[in-house]
Amino acid sequence: MPANASDTVYLHGYSPTEQARLQRQARIAESTIFRNIDYTGARRLLEVGSGVGAQTEILLRRFPDLHATCVDLSEDQLAAARANLGQMPWLEGRYALHRADATDLPFEARSFDSAFLCWVLEHVPSPARVLSEVRRVLAPGSPVYITEVMNSSFLLDPYSPNVWRYWMAFNDFQYEHGGDPFVGAKLGNLLLAGGYRDVATEIKTFHFDNREPARRKVMIAFWEDLLLSAADKLIEAGAVTPDVVDGMREEMRRVQSDPDAVFFYCFVQARAVVY
User: If you placed Cys at 196, which of 54, 122, 247, 272 could pair as Cys (CB 3.0 to 4.6 Å)?
Assistant: First the structure.
């Protein structure tokens, strides 16, 4: 979900199928993403790139004192968020949705006392500009949590050549269109350069093998859906052929049924404070 107006192409699109995938992704990853996130004492949270509201619901459920102000560039995503969150009457009055460019937020300085960004900076051409603007609207002492991709970490075993070709094309497309599929490893530098303090990063991992076969199967099936969400754009751009897509799907399903399969993926979560 691009958070600023630019030529960036959002690889996954905004279809109802993709919006449902984002809801499922939030549920699957919740326990890993939110481990060690603490907004105790915060009241006015800014969520940048809030998309369909999937993370918003989790934030408000886990931290009952929060009010979330959510910004996203896509009106389609905001409409989905209104519908999704509107089905939860217990959240009424605890969030506000705004269409806004994350590099030019429509808020006064020091409007918020916390911020949350998840899977956002990978889609923007200038993460530094986004972080500068987020810092402007935060009060001193505000905690910021940022969760981002590190796509070079992905491993699927048994080795699946079409999956690998597709994944490389997926990352190349994102990079060539103004995103950064490896931005997670750069969060420390970005936050320090942006004037944040007390910067810390944590590597978080999805690692599923025979110890958790049921969760492994769920994750591999979900990952296939994630990859397929980009198939139309990648084929249209000539980045992959339909044969590669078909081969990727076949390999993903084969691995999903393999009794000794391994799924591995790391991402990075950063915490920092505004002073």
Answer: 272
CA distance 99 to 71: 6
The candidate with the shortest Cα–Cα distance to 11, out of 180, 128, 208, 142, is: 180
CATH number of the CATH domain containing 229: 3.40.50.150
* pLDDT band of 6, cuts 50, 70, 90: very low
Q: Which domain holds residue 166?
A: 16-273
Q: What confidence category does residue 30 fall into, taking pLDDT thresholds of 50, 70 and 90? A: very high
Could you tell me how far CA 210 lies from the centroid of its own chain? 27
Could you tell me the pTM of the whole model? 0.93
Strand 114-118 and strand 44-48: the pairing is parallel
Give the separation between CA 230 and CA 205, rounded to whole angstroms: 23
**Long-range residue pairs from 23-26, CB within 8 A, at least 24 positions apart, any chain:** 23/52, 23/54, 23/84, 24/222, 24/225, 25/54, 25/222, 25/226, 26/54, 26/55, 26/57, 26/58
Strand partners, 70: 47, 97
pLDDT at 266 over 80: yes
272 in Cβ contact with 191 (< 8 Å) = yes
Neighbours of 189 (CB within 10 A): 11
**How far is the C-alpha of 164 from the C-alpha of 166, rounded, in Å?**
5
Residue 2 domain flag: no
Question: Domain tally for the chain?
Answer: 1
What was the pLDDT predicted at 18? 80
Q: Where do we find the tokens 């000539």?
A: 238
